[in-house]
Structures are given as structure tokens and as C-alpha cells.
Design goal:
The protein is mainly α. It contains 3 helices and no strands.
């Protein structure tokens, strides 16, 4: 998906790149970048969904502990 097609390209571009990253060290760098806050509900929801997917990548591909389980 090209940047012009992304609704929130300033963070969705790096997010999509992280999803397709196969190099663990590069993935770790990408997962450490958090998007800035937003006052827009739709964007906040999209960010929450993206963060959940990045946490899944950290857990499944980088063997991070799953902090959501208690």
C-alpha cells in the first residue's frame, strides 16, 4: 500500500514495514518507535490496533514476554 493510500501515513508506513520485517534486530528497532498521541477517535483506534499487532510481533517473533496475560 503506497503512502498516499494510507490514512495516517506518518505512522502507518513504519508500522506496515515492521509487519513485513524479517530481520530481528531491525524489527526490534521498529517496534520501539511509538506513534504520537492523537485527539481523533478513529486514529486512536487505528493506533491501538497497530500497537496490539506490534506486541504480537514482539511476543511471537522476538520472544518477548506476553505482558497482557495475568
Amino acid at each position: 500500500m503506497a503512502d498516499e493510500e494510507l490514512k495516517y501515513a506518518h505512522w502507518q508506513g513504519p508500522y506496515l514495514a515492521a509487519l513485513s520485517e524479517s530481520n530481528s534486530s531491525e524489527l526490534l528497532k521498529r517496534c520501539q518507535i511509538l506513534p504520537p498521541g492523537s485527539d481523533h477517535l478513529a486514529e486512536r483506534e487505528a493506533i491501538a490496533d497497530a500497537l496490539a499487532e506490534l506486541r504480537r510481533l514482539q511476543r511471537d517473533k522476538l520472544s518477548f514476554p506476553d505482558f497482557t496475560e495475568r
